[in-house]
Amino acid sequence: MSATLIKGTEIREEILEEITAEVKEIKEKYDKVPGLVTILVGENPASMSYVTLKIKTALRVGFKEIQESQPVDISEEDLLALIEKYNNDDSINGILVQLPLPKHIDEKKVLNAIDPDKDVDGFHPVNVGRLMIGGDEVKFPPCTPAGIQEMIVRAGVETSGAEVVVVGRSNIVGKPIANMMLQKGPGANATVTIVHTRTKDLAAHCKRADILIVAAGVPDLVKPEWIQPGACVIDVGVNRVGEKPSKKNPGKMVAILKGDVDFDAAKEIAGSITPVPGGVGPMTITMLMKNTLKSLKFRLGIQ
Ligand code: GUN
Predict the structure, then answer these.
(1) Of 38, 47, 196, 271, which residue has the fewest beta carbons closer than 10 angstroms?
(2) What are the tens digits of pLDDT across the range 276-295?
(3) What is the distance between the alpha carbons of residues 67 and 95, in angstroms, rounded to a whole number?
(4) CA-to-CA distance for 158 and 253, rounded, in angstroms?
């Protein structure tokens, strides 16, 4: 193996320790801690496990955490009223509504109801606009792209003037990370190309990349011959391709996960690469904690 592994699990620990120390300092100085409410509608198993991890992480770094588990048939009106309650609660700095929502609820309407200054997911149109403007305007960069940028910076990869190619144009990953990498400032200043399902020659674009960010949701889409030798490869894909018995508990089946990049072959060509699992995945919740802390700091006027 020639590539350096960029391990999200290790970077997560560094950042969570930084957050814990800062929370302690703010508590001593201002007698306040960041408050996060997680709103979960229904019992989707994947959503339940994400939310459980968000709650656990929030408590670990010393936040106040409120868990709102609502029945699957909650009305849109009641959900909007719940959001309004936390918009008006001074002890809450971050409101997270776990997606997806049941079909009878208009997701856009719900996300737009969150106070943009408590929108720690960074999904509200006001925060999308702030991200587009860049610089001091940015309050809450969306968590997965923020995690990707943090990994690239902490791995010591030069971004200024770099050719960044982003595979995928989703609102949650592709579009925002492309926007972030082209802004003026540290960890950015790159020349960015977005490629997608209608792009004519995916391979040719990928081959130009000094930094290749893949968020397509297609297992093994990126072949080793698409990678420039020495490139930094960030694989955002988490694809369930089967099941296997758990190592810890052989009676239990766990998902086999694969990224969007053929990792075993790519690691022989790339300069640095994120594994799946243990790469980008752990960074999303970490950056959610960072945004919630930032929200309190904005409120206290210390950010
Ligand atoms: N569902 C899957 N990922 C996310 C996320 O990052 N935030 C929210 N709110 N819901 C999600």
Answers:
(1) 196
(2) 999 999 999 999 999 999 99
(3) 10
(4) 41
Distance, CA 98 to ligand 1 centroid (Å)? 5
Please indicate whether residue 48, judged by its CB atom, sits closer than 6 Å to ligand 1.
Answer: no
Phi, psi at 272, each rounded to 5°: -145, 150
**End-to-end CA separation in angstroms for the chain:** 42
DSSP letter for 101, please: P
Tokens standing for residue 194 = 């977005």
Ligand 1 atom nearest to CA at 143: 6
- Let me know if 54 is a catalytic residue: yes
CA distance 249 to 238: 22
Which residue CA neighbors atom 2 of ligand 1 most closely?
A: 99
- Nearest residue (by CA) to ligand 1, atom 3, is 99
Q: Which member of 7, 56, 90, 121 is catalytic?
A: 121
Distances (CA, A) of 299 to 42, 107, 117, 139: 32, 27, 9, 12
The pairs formed by 238-245 with CB atoms below 8 angstroms and a separation of 24 or more are 238/276, 238/277, 238/281
Q: What is the pLDDT of residues 260-271, one digit of tens each?
A: 999 999 999 999
Return d(Cα 300, Cα 303) in angstroms, integer.
Answer: 8
**Of 29, 67, 78, 98, which one is the catalytic site residue?**
98
Strands 232-235 and 272-273: parallel
Q: Catalytic: 220?
A: no
